[in-house]
Design goal:
The structure is a single chain. This protein is an alpha+beta fold and 583 residues long. The protein is 22% helix and 20% strand. The protein is built from 14 helices and 20 strands. A hairpin with a 6-residue loop joins strand 5 and strand 6. Helix 4 runs antiparallel to helix 7. The chain is globular and about 60 Å long. It starts with 23 loop residues before the first strand and ends with a strand.
């Protein structure tokens, strides 16, 4: 594992429900957001019997297309027949609902995309086990007459007992719809086979190609044909040979076969499994034991097993178990998370629990049972919050702090965890010695993790492009910093994404929020060295603010000037400058 890929500044596994999220779908109660993709939003939900599921609600524009709905119903019927051990089993679905949805078993683990971004390339043995497990999943999918069509690192989840392939019931349905008007693209260019790139029919061999491209990404840290602008990537896919220079020698022959240009020259899924089983690196045995993953990754998986036990409306949002679309969002946290220690500084607000019968702070609710509220600390914004009295429930006692109104930029930087401290949504240590989490720990500091990359003067950076204006229509689209384009989420590694309330940067990158739109390379580099941040909320930069992002290796620098974050259509508009370090 490379030293610069340590898991700092982890994004929360479970994100707060927002005002436009439903609270119940098909009898399944929603507890948190898990993420979003080109086809829709994914939520953590519970069945009426109390089992956790991952519930995906498709995008409204797809829901209104009769062709999509008909194909979606067909694919759901096929998916019900898939029972592979390495797939996320379909549990329930509503193909005829006003907005179609489906629910699969919840897999407690990150995606392969997140794993590679955070930890870098994986060992040869792990890659072989992944290929075998995914190939077995594809066998089960193909046996039901379904072709995945969009196999990529973001659609493979990593659990302690092996991989799970997801999203095999939607891509083909969406492929039957004319999507040019919606801006959607079926399939991810970096993992699309030549026949897909040329508009030909997808077959089981198409998924084998995607498996090979995925394995190259996992073994080398990047896809075999790059992840730049879509036309260039697809051209290389059709006309050039894959880049396997950083792939371990023992994997190259198998991956070359998977990436053969002609579908008939690629191995079958059974042949992929046999090749993995016969490889010396696995010792002649395909087994997902406790040691199949590197230890840091095994530790990371535990973050996905600590499920929130209280849905948003029960935590103080005022919902009643129906749709609850007017309920205020509440940040969710694992129920096992001990009460964090408050730090009485002007810019940090500890988690709050309202006294019985007393008023609640906006957006902060008390857990109805248990020792104390475990909601993530939130900040009060606006001049009306010059003084706030916050009660922190600790048993039957309460501690009161008086807080000043924070500057938005200070608020963002103050919320940044340091290396070794809990990230957003991560369990914090107990403040009491001998508590559930052991000795007391220091709360997160007000600066981001330090980097080993030495600072460079602004003169060392040369402009790559400037003043490129881009628009992200919704959180399913992010900004590709290298190419200066807008792409679907999880398409590239060097990006700036966004939610409905903040910008998202790669977890291996530095960021700095400037004081105005005049931010330039010199101020950016100085700020990265003295006041970095891992969070960039809209309130700290918009409208007409700016922030910068530096890549983990220190060779790329992007300045993002915010043009609009509050459009009536939910769009976010920015202007990008991109610089590369000389030499």
């Amino acid at each position: 594992m490379s030293a610069d890929r340590s898991p700092f500044a982890l994004q929360p596994v479970f994100q707060a429900l927002t005002a436009d999220d439903p609270r119940e779908v098909g009898g399944h109660r929603l507890y948190a957001r898990l993420g979003a993709g080109g086809m829709g939003r994914v939520y953590l939900a519970y069945t009426p019997g109390g089992r956790p599921v991952a519930l995906k609600v498709v995008r409204p524009e797809l829901a209104g297309d009769p062709d999509f709905r008909a194909r979606f119903a067909q694919e759901v019927a096929s998916a019900r027949l898939i029972h592979g051990l390495f797939t996320a089993q379909l549990v329930d679905a509503g193909p005829d609902a006003a907005t179609p949805w489906l629910a699969t078993t919840y897999v407690p683990g990150p995606s392969l995309q997140q794993v590679v971004q955070r930890f870098g390339p994986l060992p040869e043995r792990t890659v072989l086990l992944l290929m075998a497990g995914i190939a077995e999943a594809l066998q089960a999918i193909h046996a039901s007459g379904v072709v995945h069509r969009d196999l990529k690192p973001g659609n493979v989840l990593i659990a302690a007992d092996g991989p799970r392939v997801i999203d095999f019931g939607i891509a083909r349905a969406a492929d039957a719809v004319a999507l040019t008007g919606t801006g959607l693209q079926i399939g991810s260019p970096a993992y699309m086979a030549p026949e897909q790139a040329m508009g030909q029919s997808a077959t089981a061999a198409t998924d084998v190609w995607a498996l090979g491209a995925l394995a190259v990404h996992v073994a080398a840290g990047a896809p075999p044909f790059g992840d730049g602008p879509h036309p260039a990537t697809l051209y290389r896919t059709v006309h050039e040979e894959p880049d396997l220079a950083r792939v371990p020698e023992g994997l190259r022959e198998l991956l070359r076969r998977c990436l053969a240009k002609r579908p008939e020259d690629r191995p079958t899924t059974a042949e992929v499994i046999a090749a993995a089983a016969g490889h010396p690196a696995v010792g002649g045995q395909l087994r997902f034991g406790e040691d199949w993953l590197p230890q840091p990754l095994t530790s990371q998986i535990t973050r996905h097993t600590e499920l929130p036990q209280t849905p948003a409306e029960a935590a103080g949002t005022g919902g009643t178990g129906g749709t609850g679309l007017n309920a205020a969002p509440t940040m969710l946290a694992p129920a096992a998370m001990p009460t964090p220690t408050p730090t009485p500084t002007p810019t940090v607000l500890a988690t709050a629990a309202a006294a019985p019968g007393g008023p609640e702070l906006p957006g902060v609710g008390a857990t109805p049972s248990g020792p104390a509220s475990t909601a993530r600390p939130k900040r009060l914004r606006g001049r009306t919050a010059l003084v706030a009295v916050v009660a922190l429930a600790v048993g039957a006692a309460a501690t009161v702090f008086v807080l000043d109104d924070p500057d938005p930029v200070e608020a963002a930087t103050a919320d940044t965890p340091v290396a070794g401290s809990p990230g957003p949504g991560t369990p914090a240590a107990s403040s009491a010695p001998g508590g559930p989490s052991g000795p007391a720990r220091t709360p997160a500091a007000t600066t981001a993790p330090s980097r080993s990359t030495p600072p460079a003067p602004a003169a060392d950076f040369t402009p790559d492009y400037r003043a490129v204006e881009l628009t992200s229509a919704d959180p399913n689209y992010e900004f590709d910093l290298a190419a200066g384009t807008v792409v679907p989420v999880e398409t590239v590694n060097w990006y700036v994404g966004r939610t409905d309330s903040e910008f998202l940067i790669p977890e291996t990158a530095d960021s700095y929020i400037g004081r105005d739109s005049g931010l330039g390379p010199a101020e950016c580099l100085q700020g990265l060295g003295s006041r970095p941040t891992a969070r960039v909320p809209f309130s700290a930069v918009g409208p007409r603010g700016a922030f910068c992002v530096r890549s983990a290796d220190g060779k790329e620098l992007a300045i993002v000037r915010v043009l609009s974050t509050a459009g009536a259509d939910g769009a976010v508009k920015v202007s990008l400058d991109h610089y590369r370090r000389n030499g």
